[in-house]
Amino acid sequence: MTSSRLTVGRTAAGARLDRWLAESLPDLSRSRIQHLIAGQHVTVNGAATKASHRLHGGETIEIDVPPLPPARWKVRQGPICAQRRPGPQAIEASISSTVASPAATMCRSLSPSSTRTTTSS
């Protein structure tokens, strides 16, 4: 666990705690800082507070950064969707389509029915 003690300068008065910490500790993302604050790993003058806390200047901030848990990855076998291999038209259609949800769009745009074109006589 890494611990830091920081003193807020008077020029930081009015700044949000999470934003000030993100600027002061560039090795930590603002999201990570917000999780640390929510988990009470950050104190302002010895008291836990919220990420939206407005600084006054002159406060002492203590932050304890526990190590991140190991990543848990799941390996998936096979393709995202059980469709047959797309032809050139399906690939072109998938490139030109707007992506809302990558996995769902790929399954829809690569399906054989989406590559059929109809002509009216």
The proportion of residues in beta strands is 5-15%
The CATH architecture of the largest domain can be given as Roll
Q: In CATH terms, what is the fold-level topology of the largest domain?
A: Structural Genomics Hypothetical 15.5 Kd Protein In mrcA-pckA Intergenic Region, Chain A
What's the helix count?
A: 4
Element-level helix/strand string: EHHEEEHH
Read across the widest sheet, the strand sequence of neighbours is: 1-4-2-3
Q: Rg to the nearest angstrom?
A: 25 Å
* Nearest-integer average pLDDT: 78
- How much helical structure, as a percent, in the residues? 25-40%
Contiguous runs where pLDDT drops below 50 for at least 5 residues: none
Give the CA-CA distance, first to last residue. Answer: 73 Å
Global structural class: alpha+beta
